[in-house]
Amino acid sequence: MTLRQSAILVLAVFALGACRKRQTAAAPTGQTTSAEETARRDREARARADSVAAADAARARERTLRETELRAAESLQEPIYFEYDSDALNAEAEDRLRGKAEVMRANARMQLRIEGHTDERGSTEYNLALGQRRAEAVRTFLVNYGIPAARLAVISFGEERPAEEGGDEASLARNRRAEFVVTAGGAR
What we know:
Layout: H1 3-24, H2 34-76, E1 80-81, H3 91-106, E2 111-117, H4 124-144, E3 152-158, H5 169-175, E4 177-184
Parallel strand pairs: 2-3
Antiparallel strand pairs: 1-4, 2-4
Helix pairs in contact: 1-2, 2-3
């Protein structure tokens, strides 16, 4: 049951309770005393206040959930980088992947697409294969860290989607990467 459905259910219960109390509050003779009328008004006011408080709390929980999912999705989108002509994960990449695995554990609905990229050196076929091996290396690490393989898709773009144009070593290094796209369970 979603938070929104829970909030509606709580509001309906309070409204029913308020209606039921209103019907039973009348004196058998059809006449009410001012004390009974005051007590009835107090009960109705409390029921309205409780209903408003429950709705506010549900909205706050929903907002917190959205903010948490957004921060999680943002942290998952940071790329990891590879050495030239390599699909091996270095220590920095493994540290980042551990962090991503923790975020995914905390967000069981979240699914990722891992995109493998290369620099422009090498043939198109070689770069597509290298990009695939990079994406698979990341997926294997995450699966070995406890993330179900069904939540991870891989694709290679080879050299087709450079992060940065240019033939200098710094530009080429930024193109040798794996990127992450949240495909399900992320922020709405």
